[in-house]
UniProtKB/TrEMBL annotation:
A GO MF label: peptide-N4-(N-acetyl-beta-glucosaminyl)asparagine amidase activity
Domain Glycosyl hydrolase family: 269-763
Keyword flag Hydrolase: yes
One BP term from GO: glycoprotein catabolic process
Keywords tagged on the record: Calcium, Hydrolase
SUPFAM superfamilies hit by this protein: Six-hairpin glycosidases (SSF48208)
Cofactors (names): Ca(2+)
Source taxon at top rank: Bacteria
Glycosyl hydrolase family 92 N-terminal domain span: 34-263
Keyword Cell membrane on entry: no
InterPro entries given in the database record: 6-hairpin_glycosidase_sf (IPR008928), GH-type_carb-bd (IPR014718), GH92_a_mannosidase_put (IPR005887), GH92_N (IPR041371), Glyco_hydro_92 (IPR012939), PNGase (IPR050883)
Lineage: Bacteria, Pseudomonadati, Bacteroidota, Bacteroidia, Marinilabiliales
The protein, known as: Glycoside hydrolase family 92 protein
Subunit structure: Monomer.
């Protein structure tokens, strides 16, 4: 009897435990469900908004409400019309605009005519999926994708005149289409290509190829050129301002499925992408697969506690950090090399199973990413960082330069300096090295001298200086003066000098771990060149004329970019010495005076939400100022870093369509910065040190779990737990690292990589003894 009772008790205990575990598993929040794709979409950018896409997807399929211009284009929340659904929203790339319609055909008349009104009623957008109703046509459009294939499901009304338009000659985002061609392959397939005209950033016309398959026979294929329909029955249409459409009949609420694969190499490669990634026709399964993929990627960092709004903002930020920069190679690793005079098809290296070792990527410059993506990716997504490093090394071998920001296989020379040096130094010094590191360093070293990429001003493709280049001046004088007769846009001497000096330090750190002592010493000496644009009379970084004198009419806080700077001013750039805050503080009269001055700038900027207004003392809407709150850590006042990081996070906490980034979200950089601020980890030097370490501020959440990639790091997880966390309790009172009391504001990357636990106790008043150097 006693045995029976014991068995019953054990049974109920196990049953209770099983039910409890099941309930916990069932109620666990999926990170993708917390992403709000509409955040700050009232002021969008072509590559900003995404819905039906995978992480870094070549295809990023979404509705376009505005199609002209790189800015204020793509999906804008307050727009009233949908002009098309296009498949590519990338840095200087666009293409393959389609649109379902019914009734009188208007495709040849352009998007201004065939566009449809819509509203947000019934609209659903989430990572990997978008659903919207085209009111003018009573068509429900649903979109999902794989990495290289867009998948459409259109629910039509009853009509004898149902269409899908392929507006291949349309103006999309960055410029016009130079030429396009579309042809009918068979009764359920069309194919084609578009040539994107060159832009001021992307110097060469660039092709995109596509294949579209339907689950329904095509009744007829029609086309036009320059708005004029082609009367005769045709199977092919080509030319300038050309396009095509397919026609069929539909019954009431008939669902028509279409798969569209793209490639930058050829139609055959687009077809290979389609057949490899999306052989079947199960739209709901494809949607689920995409959603699951996002959950896997977003789940690399798990957060618990905090408010739901904070969790939404966190995962929306993380989602932004995992897109914008796009895959441009095909499933078999083929990619288009446009670095030289003639376009060539190249092949990435294959692994032992014959699969591509990494994808090739398209991306805007790394300018400012040392305070965002470089840190986040190297912590939680080292494989991604490896892929980008491989892409840049391939481009060096293809065209002779490590790129600043490639578009469609072109060099673009967007922004300034060589921020790739910071990216590589962070990767290499954290042990991310699955690429030809010797070639990488060779290319980066080349960029640091005349005839390297630093010679090119912003967007300046051809170097044609009457005298010396900017790097000539830098090497000779230790600074870049004003008016060097550069043809680029961003040639301010102070900005260039400070960026070059930091990049030199990054190269020194990489050289140190590569045991290149001569280069280490040379670049370390050059990294002190920031001192040459410091004016002790004004107490700020100050531009210099050709004769070496300081320029006149100097105002450090002017809100528009003044002479000598790049998208910022002296009040911001005067703190752009990520590698030597201690040395900068010494120039400023010592740490106490330095902290007081910087703190006063934050106090002035708080009323403006830390963005430019009548004056600009702190700016978290653009890259040059995004490390300022963390400067206090190294300046001897960690509690002020804790305070101002929280205040900045609060100012950028909006989760509506009308705020959130308050400026320029460059392909995930501001999203990544938001993630780092929320978890309380940062690296003022960008993580490029020969011995990287993380600096602490107060996290927003009760628990943060970072899952480590065991292909790179030996640990399983790194966990951060807080106690007494609240809006008021922003100050670190004490901490433990792996069970031991921890009184430093930093800990090493080596400790992080081994896994472990950081415990932080928070309070509402600063503990000015904790963490002070």
């Amino acid at each position: 009897m006693k045995t029976a009772v014991n068995l019953i008790v054990v049974f109920f205990c196990y049953s209770f435990f099983f039910l409890a575990c099941t309930r916990k598993q069932e109620t666990k929040i999926q990170p993708a469900s917390l992403v709000n794709v509409f955040v700050d979409t009232h002021n969008s950018r072509w590559f900003y908004f995404s819905s039906a896409t995978h992480p870094f997807g070549m295809v990023n399929l979404s509705p376009d409400t505005d199609t002209k211009g790189s800015w204020k284009s793509g999906y804008l929340y307050d727009s009233k019309q949908i002009r098309c659904f296009s498949h590519i929203h990338a840095w200087q790339l666009s293409g393959v605009a389609v649109m379902p319609t019914v009734g009188e055909f208007k495709g040849n008349l352009g998007m201004d005519v065939y566009q449809s009104s819509f509203n947000h009623e019934g609209e659903i957008a989430e990572p990997g999926y978008h659903k919207v109703i085209l009111n003018d046509y009573e068509i429900t459009a649903e979109l999902t994708s794989t990495a290289r294939v867009g998948f459409h499901r259109y629910t039509y009304p009853k009509s004898n005149n149902s269409y899908i338009i392929f507006d291949t000659g349309a103006f999309l985002a960055h410029g016009p289409t130079k030429y396009s061609k579309v042809w009918k392959v068979n009764d359920t397939e069309v194919a084609g290509y578009e040539i994107m005209e060159a832009t001021i950033r992307r110097p060469k016309a660039t092709p995109v190829y596509f294949v579209a398959k339907l689950n329904k026979p095509i009744e007829s294929f029609i086309g036009w050129e320059d708005s004029v329909m082609i009367d005769n029955p045709i199977d092919t249409i080509d030319g300038v301002n050309a396009g095509a459409a397919i026609k069929f009949q539909t019954t009431e609420r008939e669902q028509v499925l279409m798969k569209v694969a793209v490639s930058y190499v050829s139609v055959e490669q687009a077809r290979l992408n389609l057949e490899t990634e999306l052989a079947g026709w199960n739209f709901d399964q494809a949607r689920k697969n995409s959603y699951d993929e996002w959950n896997k990627w977003l789940g690399k960092i798990e957060v618990e506690g905090g408010t739901r709004k904070q969790q939404v903002r966190f995962y929306t930020n993380l989602w932004h950090a995992l897109q914008g920069r796009r895959i441009v190679s095909d499933v078999n690793g083929k990619y288009l090399d446009m670095t030289c005079d003639t376009a060539k098809v190249k092949q990435v290296t294959l692994d032992k199973n014959g699969k591509p070792s990494f994808p090739h990527y398209n991306f805007d410059a790394w300018w400012g990413s040392h305070w965002s993506l470089d840190i986040l990716w190297s912590m939680a997504y080292p494989e991604v960082m490896d892929g980008f490093c491989n892409t840049m090394v391939d481009m060096y071998k293809d065209g002779g330069l490590i790129p600043r920001g490639p578009a469609g296989g072109n060099y673009t020379f967007v922004m300034i300096g060589d921020p790739s040096a910071c990216f590589f130094a962070t990767a290499y010094n954290k042990g991310i090295r699955n690429y030809d590191a010797e070639a990488a360093y060779e290319g980066l070293r080349k960029n640091a001298f005349p005839e390297g990429s630093r010679d090119h001003g912003g967007y300046e493709h051809k170097i044609d200086y009457p005298d010396k280049t900017m790097v000539d001046y830098y090497v000779e004088r230790g600074y870049v003066p004003e008016d060097v007769n550069a043809k680029g846009w961003h040639c301010g001497g102070v900005a260039l000098t400070l960026e070059y000096a930091y990049q030199d330090w990054c190269l020194a750190q990489m050289a140190k771990n590569m045991e290149n002592e001569a280069d280490y010493n040379m670049f370390m000496k050059r990294s002190e060149n920031y001192k040459n644009v410091w004016n002790p009379q004004t107490g700020y970084m100050h531009p210099r004329e050709q004769d070496g004198s300081w320029i006149g009419n100097f105002d450090p806080s002017v809100s528009k970019t003044p002479r000598g700077f790049c998208e910022s001013n002296s009040a911001i750039y005067s703190y752009f010495v990520p590698h030597d805050i201690e040395g900068l503080a010494a120039l400023s009269g010592g740490k106490d005076a330095f902290v007081e001055k910087l703190n006063s700038q934050f106090e002035k900027a708080q009323q403006y939400g830390f963005v430019p207004n009548k004056e600009m003392w702190v700016d978290y809407s653009n890259q040059p100022g995004t490390g300022m709150a963390h400067v206090f850590n190294k300046a001897g006042a960690p509690w002020l870093s804790q305070k101002w990081v929280r205040k900045v996070k609060e100012a950028f906490s909006d989760t509506t369509a009308y705020g959130g980034y308050n400026g320029d979200e460059d392909q995930g950089q501001m999203g990544a910065l938001g993630v780092l601020m929320a978890i309380g980890l940062f690296e003022e030097d960008g993580g490029a040190s020969a011995n990287p370490s993380y600096e602490l501020t107060s996290p927003l959440f009760d628990k943060i779990t970072i899952h480590l990639d065991n292909m790179y790091y030996p640990g399983k997880t790194f966990i951060i737990e807080t106690k007494n966390n609240s809006e008021q309790n922003m100050y670190i009172q004490s901490a433990k690292l792996n069970g031991k009391n921890w009184n430093k504001y930093w800990f090493s990357h080596k400790t992080f990589a081994k896994g472990g636990k950081l415990e932080i106790i928070l309070g509402d008043k600063p503990n000015k003894t904790w963490g002070k150097p």
